[in-house]
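A quick aside before the break. I want you to see a complete sequence-to-structure record at least once, exactly as it would be stored in a machine-readable document. Don't worry about memorizing anything.
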Amino acid sequence: MRFRLQSVVAILIVTFLLSAIAIAQQPAAPATPSTAPAAPADQQSSDIQENTQAPIEPVMSGPYPVMSKASEDRGRQIFEMFNHSEGGQIYANLTEPLRKRIKSEASYVTFNKKLRERMGPEVKMLEENIVPNVMVPDTIYTRLSYFERFPTTMIRTMITINQRGQIDELTIGPVPTIAEGRYAGYTDTNKYHLPFGDEWLVYQGGRTLFENAYSPSDDQRYSLDFVYLKNGRVFAGKGGIQSKNEDYYCFGQPVLAPADGKVVKAESGYDDNPPGRPSGDPADGNVITISFGNGEIGTINHLKQNSLKVKVGDDVKQGQEVAQCGNSGIGPIPHLHFQLTRGGGVPLPAQFVDYVADGKPVASGEPKRGEMVKNNPSAATASSKPATPPPAGK
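That is the input. The structure line, written in tokens, reads:
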């Protein structure tokens, strides 16, 4: 796992104003990949964090609760302000800390207008989702679109909204197409269940950069991050670096074996980091690796210190509690990270069976960012082993 607080995906942390300046200064030319808004070279990094360094003041209540329909609709409303060149309206809804990062209202409105003219209007919305901010009680609304002047470039708009409906962060940038690797068409030979009880949120999951910050990484592709919510929030209280691991609802939650297998790695002695302050311990921290057979190996890391209930060589059964969710290694906040690999660590897509996503049953699928998922309690219990040998060459 490669969480880096100092090098988050670039197009998530470049402010809207800087994006506006970059595009407004480009010469007018037919839309091509070279004239699309460009992201810095460090966009290959990934992190569950959206932007821990932003000067965001926690707002504890208001008409736009975290992860509510009202906050999602507010995200759409703010996007339409940009889509209709209403820069003054956007500026009026920025929080004070964000305004201080901008030279003046007049310059903001000017660049907003130039950016909108340079891009043209949105012509198609491809996808949208909401997730909670993991450090403050905000909602992050994200939208993937095509714009008139960039008809072949997918553009992501990300708007962080506090509970008063104000804008704590507004970013916009291109989403490059990511190669999915040699195992893109792979079908798992084992039948995996989600590695937790109850219902959790998929924070990173899917195959595109819009859905999953791990997608560009050769060694982390297809990885998943899950967080546990209460009332739409990841934590109790204000959050941030002054909070405690115990404030996060994930912390101490049981972690379950996704399939039958044998434990091939088990580390349990590393400390749990305070939220937002990862240690210099090995990246995985406390970790369990399970061989499921047929060359498929699963790793769950950042586990709670001394919570492991298994050791190397133990056989485990699907659904068995093997540890507790923690915040060890370089995890920024308590969460559950799962990755499926093959052979020498080549990433595989993880297909889970018999689960529910956003209230709808899924026979087999790959969870995506923004979905609320849980194992289907009505599904018949079945062996996690394949009924037939794996396909030749897999």
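Two observations worth writing down. The helical segments are 10-13, 16-24, 69-83, 87-92, 96-99, 105-119. The CA atoms of residues 94 and 167 lie 5 Å apart. We'll return to this after the break.
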